[in-house]
Amino acid sequence: MHKKELRIKYKALRAALAEEEREEKSLAIANQLLRLNIWDKTYYHLFLSIQEHKEIDTEFILQILAGKDKEIVIAKSDFETRKMTHFLLTDNTKIKKNDYNIPEPVNGIEVPVAMIEVVFIPLLAFDKKGHRVGYGKGFYDQFLAECKPDTIKIGLSFFEAENQIEDVFEADVLLDYCITPTKIYTFN
Description:
Elements: H1 3-15, H2 19-33, E1 43-45, H3 59-67, E2 71-78, E3 83-88, E4 95-97, E5 103-105, E6 118-122, E7 125-126, E8 132-133, H4 139-146, E9 152-156, E10 177-179, E11 184-186
Parallel strand pairs: 1-2, 1-6, 6-9, 9-10
Antiparallel strand pairs: 2-3, 4-5, 7-8, 10-11
């Protein structure tokens, strides 16, 4: 399937999830993450869920990271430049939803991309080769291209892999892992 078709398909599948099912699947994904060999790192980039889009609830992952005393990095999006600025999440960080309902830091301590070691990536769909389909705005494409080559890229999905995304670009940055409620996919 093509990215456009996959976006339609997976937005509909996600919209059909009951709130309780979304919470159960989000918790299962967080528990799967504990099985990965990624916990020796310091800086973890995490997206804050857009509730209105029925995204994975990352609160469970946030709790794991805080419990392991990790540095949690969150982003603020600039829709004109399609760039993200990254901030350390602290007790003093004020979070506010932007015009697209994305929870973002109002301000804070900026973290250079070079310091980020693990990135948890929101997505709508992914395939068995590690390609992903997001919302199509290109924020994560640009961000991941700026990351160090050894930065661990982990997609999070309620649903299992598609066989193949047909219209991938050569410049697309592949995932290292994708975590679903029932499976850990490993790429590369």
